[in-house]
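Example 3.2
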Amino acid sequence: MKTWMKVVLGIIAAILALVSLIFWLTGDVTKAGDDFFEAVQNDDIDAAYELLSEDFQAGTSKQQLQTYLETNALDNISEVSWGARSIENNMGTLNATVETNSGGTIPLMMRLVNGSNGWKIQSIRKESAGFGAGTTDASLPSRAKQSELEKGTIAAFSASLADRDMTKLYDHSSQLWQQQTSVEELENVFGEFYEYAPGYAAIARLNPVLDDATIDGETQVLTIKSHYPVEPSAVYFENKYIYEGTDWKLMGLNLKIGTSPN
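Structure, written as tokens:
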């Protein structure tokens, strides 16, 4: 056998060995995904819910999980196949293709966390259907979703200002941000805005002007920049979100009056 052919065969063998090793190392991750969808197929929402991480459960009730599955046609599946998968530290990522009983195909990405009770699902993300937003970053939510996120955040912020209590903003935020801050700390930062509550209540009834949106490739944190062109000075927001459970959740709020936070 010629030397070059031996080299090529050796490379192929090494690649196959690496692929086999990856599949072996991620076997427990895919099993957690298989167990989840098996429970869903068996209409066993209790078993499916037990496969969610503590953070996922903290922000999502059984009824909300059931509603999410039904809304996204994930309660009517016939087969699940796993594509790319990876593990880094105690976090795992799975790409899946779900076949529905009606013949449809749904692409999903699942993130899992490994703890004392084994691998648990941290988030389930379905790729958005429909027209894109003119961006090449497929992981970005649609502009309609970005607007929805910003409006939800400003509504929670406005309600907290009206209450002179940051509890509503705190409850609106992600589990991760809640672990890193407190209601008291939010009050220390945003308490100075309490006297302007009527103005922010008016802003909360408006649609934001979306300026920019990016996702950090390493942390997967979504940053949305928007503003409200109100008088006498525009209000600019630069808010951060992480994907937790079945949706984007607030991870940080930054605002400036009159000038962009850039």
